[in-house]
Structures are given as structure tokens and as C-alpha cells.
Amino acid sequence: MDKKVPNSKTSQKKKLIRTKREIKRIRLITAIVILVVAAILFYFIDSRSYVASVAGRRISKAEFEFFLSQQVSYTEVEEGLTTDEEKEKFWTTPADGQDPWEEAKIKALDLAKEYAIQLIKAKEAGFKVNNEIKTEVLYFLASMQGQMTDKQFTDYIKDIYGVSPRQLQHIWENYRLIDTFKEDYIDKNYEGKPVSDEEAKDYYNENKNSFDKVDISYVTFYKYDRETFKDLSEEEVEQKKKLANEALEKIRNGENMDSIIKSYTEETVSSDDSSDESEQSETFGKTTLQYSESNSLAKWAFENNVGDVDIVETDYVIYVAKIEKRTDFADVSDDVKTKMEEEAKEEFYNNVLDEWSLEPKYNITKNDIVYDSITYKK
CA 350, CA 343: separation in Å to the nearest integer? Predict the structure, then answer.
């Protein structure tokens, strides 16, 4: 009797037919594999998205890089670093057994910790980022961008803050939230005593330049051509200096300052509805200054006395200036007391923040993989 030879095609079809039980099992295994792969990918991505955590609140890589960027900029200014070569040498050269880059990272981590603690406290107190905060930050970012293209703005923000505009927006929203919480906390918990007149006067005497204003009258001589903006020749500048000395001598001999200004100044009188030229000259060539180390005229005014007159020369202008008036304690006493009260509140809050930072529950836990991966890049 002939044996039937199995049809190979029929056998293959039978193998491809699955029972319902087998199909369910395959589907289950497939789902498990997908979940495992997704979990691995999520863990891989998530574990590299933050640098540290404080009481469960993660400090994102962007947040840390923001604080690091600010710390780096501050250090470079303090060290007087201006060129790329100077900066690279400083950050890559250990000094006194210390790695400056690691020192900057540690300080940035401290700043990030304080930031995280305050956000935790704000959330516990019921504060959250609302539409008002979001609108305020968006408006400020828009005003910063001005006429820059999106790419120009992105590059600018990255260069200044070390993050993208969107990341900066998030950080600034959190900072406005912190400010709101801070003001509320101080208002509810600070108990300060009134500042006495004697305390205020002592503070004023130590910080006069921070409060005073100085009124001056001045004659202006330009060291450049005002139409072409080209520098004048040495001979032309010397002629201006002779005129400045001539004006100075007349003022010291008692001539009226308004008349000197009218006769000598090169500054253009602003347009005025008044046709009375003498009325314009009474206010023209006068200004009120606040102290500035970088402003030669302001620096001179604050370092001299009422009634003093002299020539003050800058890179582009020669001034013949006279100090007319300076405020004193009686004029600014309220401002002094307000400043002292603000400093006292700030000190109170900073002390409280220091106490919070010392609590074990707010110990910072580094994500070493990400933290160690952030290296210096010129």
C-alpha cells in the first residue's frame, strides 16, 4: 500500500495556523517586550535629564547649566578675564590644588539647591505659577528680543544664560514664583524694629554716594566732528582746551555760569516752544547726577564740594563743570531708612533660607553621570 507523502505546502500552512491560546501568548510577550524597551528608554532619557535632586524635587540639566553660566560669568568678571585665551587658561588650569571649574560647579550646585528649596516651600504654601507670572515673563522676553530674529535671540540667550529661551522662560517663571513666596513669607514672619534717626545718619555717613544727588552746571566742548563723527586733530583738540581754560578762568573770576554756558557751550539747545532764548539758557547746560565709578563727570562731582569748578576731560568731551548743590541727610533720610529696612528683611530671609538648607531632608543628591559629564567648553 502506497504511503501518502505529506504536501510540503500543506505542512507550512498548518505551522502558520495558531491557536487562540498561542496568539494571546505572543501578544502578551510582545506587549511585555515593548514595555521593557520603553522602560529602558525612559530610564535612559530620564536619568540624564537632571543633575541633582532635593527632597524629591529634581534640578534639571538646564537649570543647573543656567546657574553654572551665571557663576562662570561672575567669576570671569571678578578675575578680570576678557579674552577667550585668558578664560580657557583660567578654567583649565588648577591653582593651589583646586580645580576652578569644579569650584564653579559646586557653587552652582549650592545656588540650585537654594532655588529648589524655595520652590518646594512655595508649593507647600500654596503658590504656583499663574497666568500673571507667565504673561510678565513672556513680555520681558519679547522686549529683550526686540528686532532680533529667533535664531539670533536663541544664540544670544544661550551665550548669556547657557540655556534656550524656552528653558529660560521656565526658570524665570519659577523665580517670579519664589519672589512672590518670599514677599509673603517676610510679610507674615518678619518682626523688625523701626530705624532710629541716629542709626540712619550713621548708615548715611558710611554710604553717602549711594543716596546723594549732585546738581552741576557745565560747558561742553566736543573732541570730534558732530556731523561726521570723526575725531578732531590734536591741534583742534588743543584749541578746544584753550577755550575750556578761558571759560574756567572767567567762572573763577565770578562771571555768571549761565552766561558762560550760553557763550561757550557746543551742545545743541533742544527745541522749545518758548521764543525767549534767555529762558532756555537758564536750564540748558545743567543736570543732576547720581554716583557712577565709570562716569568721569559724575565721579568728579561726588569727589569734590559745592562751589568747586574744574575741567573734566573724557574720551570724547571736555567739560567745564561747576558743582551747584548736593543733597544731605535731611534730603534723603526717608530713603536711607527704607534701604535699611529692606536690608534687614533680606538678612532675615537669608538666615531662614540658611536654616532650611541645613535640614537633612533638603540634602542634595547628585546624579553623578550627568554632573560629571558637564565639562568646560570654550
Answer: 10
Q: What is the DSSP letter of 361?
A: G
Percentage helix, strand, coil, to 5, in the chain? 60, 10, 25
For residue 308, the SS3 value is coil
* Bridge partner residues of 53 (DSSP): 58, 365
For residue 286, what are the β-bridge partners? 217
CA-wise closest residue to 75 among 63, 90, 95: 90
DSSP 342: H
Q: Which of 301, 311, 329, 158 is nearest to 220 (CA)?
A: 311
Q: What is the DSSP letter of 82?
A: -
DSSP-based three-state secondary structure for 159: helix
- Cell matching residue 111: 545656588
Q: How many helices (H) and strands (E) does the chain have?
A: 16, 7
Q: What single-letter DSSP state applies at residue 236?
A: H
> Which segments of 214-333 are extended strands (E)?
214-222, 286-289, 309-313, 317-326
The β-bridge relationship of strands 286-289 and 364-366 is unpaired
* Span 191-207, pLDDT tens digits: 989 999 999 999 999 99
Contact in structure between 165 and 120 (CB atoms under 8 Å): no
* pTM attached to this predicted model: 0.76
Reported as a single tens digit per residue, the pLDDT across 332-354 is 999 999 999 999 999 999 999 99
